[in-house]
Design brief:
Largest sheet: 6 strands, antiparallel
Radius of gyration: 19 Å
Helix content: 25-40%
Number of helices: 13
Shape: globular
Number of strands: 6
Structural class: alpha+beta
Order of helices and strands: HEHEHHHHHEEHHHEHEHH
Strand order of the largest sheet: 2-3-1-4-6-5
C-alpha cells in the first residue's frame, strides 16, 4: 500500500507501520541477544532503510518499553515505580530512598550510571513523574511488535499504528489535513513520553477514541539519540491509529495539497 499524502508531499521517509504478533517474524532484523538496547534504533532502520524489524518481550531493556508496546506496566511494585520516577526527574536528588536508588546504580556501566545519577529530567520533580507514570495507558497483549514500511503491508494486516516521519513543512501539511474536519482544540497530542510510548501505547489509546488524534514524538532525547544515525535531527514522528490514517488519506483528496498555495512549497 502507498500513502497518497506521502506521495504528494514527496516525503523522504514514507510512512511505516507497527503491528502486533505472537510469533517472531521471519526475515526481519531484531535483537540477537536476550537483552537488547533501545528499540528506537530498530524503528529508525525501518524508517530510513525500509527494513522490516521487530522487538519482543524477551528483549525488554528499560523501564518504559513494557508499557510502550503493551506488555504490562513493566513495574513490579511501588519501589520500582519510585525508582523510575526518580530517574525520569532529578535522579538521585529526587529519590525518596536514596540508599536503594544508589544500590540499583552500583552494577550499571559508567555512562548509564552517570545518567541515572543525574536523572533524565523529563519531569520537573518526583511527584509529577510518578503521577505521569501511574496515568500511562497500560495494555498486556502480544509477544512481538513488528515495524515495516507501509508499502510492505500484506493483505489482511491491520496496523496498530501508522508512523509518519516528517520535517517541519510536512508536519504543517499533515496537521492542517488533520485539523480540517475538527472544531475543538487539541488536534494533536504531545505526551511527555518516551519515543516508543508515543508510537505505541499512546497511539493504541487513541484507537479506542471516537475522535482519535495523532501523537507527536519523539520528545525524549534518549530516544532521539538512538535514531540520529539514521534520521536527521530536524525530523519528528507523527503516529496515528489505522482508522485515522485512512480518514486523512480520504480527506487529502480535497486538501491544501491540491492548492496553488501548496505548490509554492514544493
Amino acid at each position: 500500500m502507498q500513502s497518497n499524502i506521502s506521495k504528494e508531499l514527496e516525503m523522504r521517509f514514507p510512512p511505516i507501520v507497527l503491528l502486533k504478533s505472537d510469533e517472531k517474524p521471519e526475515n526481519a532484523v531484531g535483537p540477537k541477544k536476550e537483552k537488547a538496547g533501545c528499540v528506537m534504533s530498530y524503528v529508525a532502520q525501518t524508517i530510513a532503510k525500509r527494513k522490516t524489524t521487530f522487538f519482543g518481550r524477551e528483549h525488554i531493556s528499560c523501564g518504559g518499553i513494557s508499557v510502550g508496546f503493551g506488555w504490562g506496566s513493566g513495574l513490579a511494585d511501588e519501589q520500582a515505580v519510585d525508582f523510575q520516577a526518580s530517574f525520569l526527574s532529578m535522579g538521585m536528588d529526587s529519590a525518596p530512598d536514596k540508599e536503594y536508588y544508589a544500590q540499583r546504580l552500583e552494577n550499571m556501566p559508567k555512562n548509564t550510571r552517570e545518567m541515572f545519577e543525574h536523572g533524565e529530567r523529563i519531569y520537573c520533580d518526583f511527584e509529577t513523574a510518578k503521577k505521569s507514570i501511574q496515568s500511562r495507558p497500560v495494555y498486556d497483549e502480544g509477544q512481538y511488535v513488528i515495524f515495516k514500511g507501509l508499502e510492505n503491508l500484506e493483505d489482511g494486516e491491520i496496523p496498530e499504528s501508522v508512523i509518519f516521519t516528517v520535517n517541519p513543512i510536512e508536519l504543517t501539511a499533515i496537521i492542517q489535513i488533520n485539523s480540517s474536519f475538527r472544531t475543538q482544540e487539541a488536534y494533536i497530542l504531545t505526551p511527555q513520553a518516551a519515543g516508543c510510548q508515543a508510537i505505541g501505547c499512546f497511539t493504541f489509546n487513541e484507537n479506542e477514541s471516537d475522535d482519535p488524534k495523532p501523537v507527536l514524538g519523539p520528545i525524549d532525547f534518549a530516544g532521539r539519540s538512538k535514531m540520529k544515525h539514521f534520521i536527521p535531527n530536524d525530523y519528528m514522528t507523527l503516529s496515528m491509529p489505522w482508522k485515522l490514517f485512512l480518514k486523512l488519506e480520504e480527506l487529502n483528496e480535497n486538501s491544501v495539497l491540491q492548492t496553488d498555495l501548496w505548490k509554492k512549497f514544493k
